[in-house]
Structure to design on (480 residues):
């Protein structure tokens, strides 16, 4: 978006504006891949109620886009994955302040719902959806990439994490993920998108599970073994009968995405981040 | 085994009457007109504190339908911001106390726990499901809205909404039936035989 070269400068004002716009765009406009996946699900769905639900979700998305209103009222906790090049320089203020201000402005000016409480126990609403959750990663180069998701509470609450044993193997892993989807059932607004992080550590598998959700629906994992696991889980989930909104049917999940990382000899950590059709992911490249 | 989605539409006026509720069956599609009380997590906590303290509620609970919703802000010129039912399970801890006060129905999404299902039968109440995430579509049947109390809770304030033909499905009826359980069992069998 701006000049290139060593020690490239990126002004915080540019970050604020773009983060604010991305929050609104994500909330108002259902992604094309999600819309297409729901459209295909209408064709395959065997339950009349399921088809009705899917049709209504599509109509709702069209109305929201036309009105520039959030298609789901729960505009989520804002989660930001920031990849900053080691040769980039942020000028004009602090990066964290800019990200907070971008979220604040995006939500308050865009009529998005404020859903964050300042403390888990006193539960006073901050009224502007700040602070977001921010993950920073230092990467080679002089760029700045900010990946944003507006993560709804209903699906987030049905997510699970388990420290499996290495002896559980791929079968135990598959069973755990399918069971997480089964338990999420109607509560997480199926049809679901399932983000899975496996390996790393207790904290890192959760991070990977959320990152996995940034993939495009219908895309294959580059590793054929992982792609096969994704397909197996996808098929098993769609035999559960949960269906759209849990009212019964074939389409319980739209896709399954797995991210892996090396792990300790004793460990098989697995996190399942459940996502509803409000998969509001945007990526900004500076 | 019959198909679970009922084709016919039942029209009801809220607040509900006892015989309205008792005639409903899980899977019935219903259009509600009249008044709904919008209340969710934080508001429920306060309502139950009032009940425990022996104080009166900020609205007359008789026959009321509580809509578990926290709308996004309305744009200038529009009556109601986007809103759709939120996960009902989070209100399970409070719902039986409200049913004991005369509340007859709830609108949410997702399944209810055993205590709520028992209370639905005990008090002759109904739990309706709306389409979670269809927030713009479901804001259209709301023709007027006023804040009753707890404005400090922001989106979680208690609101009185006047609705015309608000679409829901009976998820749990007053007779112990559960559409989520029965539909899932039915379709799991259908899919297994495909």
């Amino acid at each position: 978006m701006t000049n290139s070269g060593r020690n490239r400068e990126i002004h915080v004002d540019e970050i604020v504006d773009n983060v604010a716009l991305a929050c609104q765009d994500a909330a108002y406009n259902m992604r094309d891949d999600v819309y297409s996946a729901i459209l295909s699900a209408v064709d395959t769905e065997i339950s009349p109620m399921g088809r009705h639900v899917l049709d209504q979700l599509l109509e709702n998305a069209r109305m929201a886009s036309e009105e520039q209103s959030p298609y789901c009222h729960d505009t989520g906790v804002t989660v930001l994955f920031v990849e900053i090049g080691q040769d980039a320089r942020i000028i004009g203020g602090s990066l964290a302040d800019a990200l907070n201000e971008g979220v604040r402005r995006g939500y308050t000016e865009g009529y998005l719902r404020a859903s964050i409480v300042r403390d888990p126990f006193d539960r006073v609403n901050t009224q502007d959806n700040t602070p977001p959750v921010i993950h920073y990663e230092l990467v080679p180069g002089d760029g700045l990439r900010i990946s944003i998701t507006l993560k709804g509470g209903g699906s987030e609450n049905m997510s699970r994490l388990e420290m499996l044993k290495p002896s559980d193997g791929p079968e135990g892993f598959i069973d755990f993920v399918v069971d997480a989807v089964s338990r999420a059932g109607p509560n997480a607004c199926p049809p679901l998108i399932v983000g899975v992080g496996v390996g790393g550590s207790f904290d890192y598998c959760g991070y990977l599970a959320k990152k996995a959700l940034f993939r495009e629906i219908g895309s294959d994992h580059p590793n054929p073994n992982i792609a096969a696991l994704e397909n197996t889980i996808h098929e098993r989930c769609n035999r559960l009968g949960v269906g759209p909104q849990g009212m019964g049917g074939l389409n319980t999940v739209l896709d399954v995405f797995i991210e892996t990382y090396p792990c300790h000899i004793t460990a098989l950590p697995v996190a399942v981040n459940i996502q509803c059709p409000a998969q509001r992911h945007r990526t900004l490249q500076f | 085994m019959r198909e679970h989605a009922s084709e016919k539409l039942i029209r009801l006026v809220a607040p509900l009457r006892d015989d309205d509720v008792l005639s409903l069956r899980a899977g019935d599609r219903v259009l509600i007109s009249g008044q709904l009380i919008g209340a969710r997590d934080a508001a429920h906590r306060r309502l139950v504190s009032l009940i425990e303290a022996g104080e009166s509620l900020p609205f007359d609970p008789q026959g009321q339908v509580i809509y578990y919703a926290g709308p996004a802000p309305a744009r200038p010129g529009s009556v109601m911001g986007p809103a759709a039912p939120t996960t009902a399970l989070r209100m399970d801890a409070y719902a039986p106390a409200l049913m004991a006060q005369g509340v007859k129905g709830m609108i949410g999404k997702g399944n209810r726990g055993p205590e709520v299902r028992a209370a639905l039968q005990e008090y002759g109440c109904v739990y309706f499901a709306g389409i979670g995430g269809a927030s713009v579509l479901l804001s259209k049947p709301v023709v007027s809205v006023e804040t009753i109390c707890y404005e400090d809770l922001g989106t979680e304030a208690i609101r009185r909404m006047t609705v015309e033909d608000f679409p829901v499905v009976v998820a749990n009826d007053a007779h112990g039936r559960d559409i989520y359980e029965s539909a899932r069992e039915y379709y799991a069998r259908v899919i297994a035989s495909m």
Notes: The two ends of chain B are 16 Å apart (CA to CA). Chain B touches chain A through 49 residues (CB under 8 Å). The longest strand of chain B covers residues 158-172. Residues 111 and 181 of chain B are 9 Å apart (CA to CA).
